[in-house]
Specification:
five-stranded mixed sheet; 9% strand; 16 helices; alpha+beta; globular; two-stranded antiparallel sheet; Cytochrome p450; 11 strands
Amino acid sequence: MTMSVADVDLSEIPFWGRSPAERMEAFKLLRELERPVFVKENKVPFVGHGPGYYALVRHADVSEASRNAGVFSSEPSANSIVDMPRWMAVYFGSMINMDDPRHARLRRIVSRAFTPRVLSKMEEDLQRAATRIVDDAIAEGPGDFVAQVAARLPVQVICDMMGIPPKFHDQVLWATNIIVGNTDSEYTGVEPELKRWNVARGLARLMGAGRRLNRLAARLGRERRGDSTGDLTSLLVNGEESLTPQELGSFFILLVVAGSETTRNAISHGLKLLTDHPDQRELLLSDFDRHVPGTVDEIVRYSTPVIQFRRTLARDHEMNGQEYRKGDKVVLFYNSANRDESVFTDPDVFDITRHPNPHVGFGGPGPHYCLGAHLARREITVMFRELFTRLPEIRSSGEPSYLLSNFINGVKHLRYET
């Protein structure tokens, strides 16, 4: 059955339950339209809704909107299409939902964690973590690649950065799954239909997970104030410029969710892609150090772990022939921009030698470009080097179980063999 634009409703949860190929076909249809399509918002009980949003699906639109933060504002909310109520923003109102100067201040403070000097000091810790994870995978034998490998590394790295003791790591992973999987019944325990009872239960679990992470960060911050131990939390709460307890909690939620989910899903998608494309796998293994940078970026482009972010027009503006009014919402669909035929030759082909590769898998150019992009690349590189060195025959087995989400292109489960 041929798909038409009328079959595409980006606000409906069932659309995001379609196969990745079907979703990409839908976005291809939207890119072929003369103007960005306007999508009505769903009414979400207890949260509210607006009239809708323009879906930015072309690379040029996504890049320009990202670059022009003065017009395409991250306030009041970038990480939710609906306006986030104040009672949610307590936990999820991080710096990605802010414009300058507030955003610039927080980014300046937290950027201390991502300097080349700090990241180079982490290299040995990162390698030890990857080694330990593969040790455990070998001892346990093949099972669920996500649970045994992909989900463990980024959470461990971020918890180690923050100075969070190992006894809390499983709790952090649990809370992250709840927050990211807030439309997936496997994580929420409720069906995704927008009925008041379902939404109430889902929101309660979401807020509970946010509260748990917030309290963990706040507790750590209190312990580190005036008593630095050299970890990231110490850097963020001490010094001339420091984060308030509220800012620290929101930043930790952002770091553990955005930081772990991008890496976790890139590793999971990467194993599947390298299994499905044996020629690319063989090329990578023929000269790992030469080809791994291109492999990592192509995995991020092709899979696009973070699907979208929102912006709101700060004033009337014309962009690429489309007139926008102050207050209009636009949603930047990075997954579609990364398959734009006007930018990428054969965009549906997985090619680890692709050059140039101006993907927006870490966000578009501008002040909100992902601070942790370099760290994510290093994590993926180290994990694949460890896997292919010690388990050279590792391959995915069967089809993944995908997260039901319009925000994260997540892999919940992936069987593998060695």
